[in-house]
Amino acid sequence: MAATSSCIVNLGVKGNGNPEQPFSSSKSSQLLFSSNLSFAYNNTKYCLSLHSHQTLLSACLTKTKKSAFVVASAKPEHLKIMISGAPASGKGTQCELITKKYGLVHIAAGDLLRAEIASGSENGKQAKEYMEKGQLVPNEIVVMMVKDRLLQPDSQENGWLLDGYPRSLSQATALKEFGFRPDLFIVLEVNEEILVERVVGRRLDPVTGKIYHLKYSPPETEEIAARLTQRFDDTEEKVKLRLQTHRQNVEAVLSMYEDITLKVNGNLRKEDVFAQIDDALTKLFEDRKLNSGSLAA
Ligand code: AP5
Q1: How far is the CA of 122 from the centre of ligand 1 (A)?
Q2: C-beta 88 within 6 A of ligand 1
Q3: For the whole prediction, is pTM greater than 0.70?
Q4: Successive 10-residue mean pLDDT values, the chain, 297 residues
Q5: Do you know which SUPFAM superfamilies this protein is assigned to (predicted)?
Q6: Ligand 1: does its nearest atom lie under 6 Å from the Cβ of 195?
């Protein structure tokens, strides 16, 4: 994969609305304009994006052997969604359904960490020690990993669905400082006795990445059943430690997103959980289209 570098500049203009005196330090001054300018590049492509008033203006410059060309566009900004919940509350399962319908880029902090472990890197080795104890991996490893993934061109162009991040107040604050603000913060609420049963019965297909459950979502064929794997932290003992960590941090994270939180009953069948989320996302998507239409008019 090509290495990606990036930066974000947050622009805010305060004033009293009078063009003769655009800046005022008085208490009556208000935020008139707020935008994020971001720049990302890898070995082949440079992207400049300006997010303002729910509209994304972007310009991409692609390097070819002899020439370069620029594509610029103005279109409704894509959705930016976060999904949160206790271990095995169904975040990954719902993300599969959401991405299928809405085409957002699924970014799961746990998956990024497991990929780092699989790569055999020093960060991966350290991360595994914390994950085995059901504790949060230190911010030095997680924060930049998530930020870099959010800034990749696919996330910027299609919108993102962030799963399992932030999990602490410091992670939420870091994200805000980098200029990432979600449109919706989904919280899956599931009773604890159900969570343990879901963890112990969970299996993963290493070929397709699909999530199964021996009882609730069994594999479709014998061939798939034979290749399913279990996560190293999916034991009853470890899920109790993970739940403890979750309880210690959840309130602080929720307090950051109170005004955009959607609480979902996650005890139901996965299709019924998705129906609640789908309803909210459809409304958000329609509002977004209306807003960008009135801006263009
Ligand atoms: P992570 O991989 O994120 O694990 P988690 O939060 O514990 O969540 P899970 O992936 O276990 O569950 P899920 O909610 O996605 O449920 P799923 O859909 O699979 O993190 C692992 C570790 O990495 C952490 O402990 C920590 O150490 C570290 N880490 C991660 N993020 C970090 C961060 N930001 N900072 C620091 N450290 C971090 O479903 C579970 C099972 O239930 C499946 O079998 C599924 O088929 C079944 N199921 C799902 N929905 C339903 C339903 N409605 N009805 C019946 N069964 C269902």
Answers
A1: 24
A2: yes
A3: yes
A4: 48 41 37 48 56 48 48 64 97 97 97 96 97 96 96 95 97 95 97 94 96 96 98 93 95 95 98 98 88 59
A5: P-loop containing nucleoside triphosphate hydrolases
A6: no
Residue with CA closest to ligand 1 atom 6:
87
Using CB atoms within 10 A of its CB, is residue 166 exposed (0-12), middle (13-18) or buried (19+)? buried
User: How deeply is 91 buried, as exposed, middle or buried, from its count of CB atoms within 10 A (0-12, 13-18, 19+)?
Assistant: buried
Expressed in angstroms, the distance from the first to the final Cα of the chain is 41
User: What is the per-residue pLDDT for 6?
Assistant: 52
Six-digit token pair at 30? Answer: 């208000």
**pLDDT confidence of residue 291:** 75
* Ligand 1 atom with the shortest distance to the CA of 113: 23
Q: Does the Cβ of 34 fall within 6 Å of ligand 1?
A: no
Ligand 1, atom 5, residue with closest C-alpha: 87
The amino acid present at 230, given as its one-letter code, is Q
Ordered DSSP codes for 226-282: HH-B--TT-SHHHHHHHHHHHHHHHHHHHHHSGGGEEEEETTS-HHHHHHHHHHHHH
How many C-beta atoms lie closer than 10 Å to residue 206's C-beta?
9
How crowded is residue 65: how many other Cβ atoms within 10 Å of its Cβ? Answer: 4
Helix, strand or coil, per DSSP, at residue 48: strand
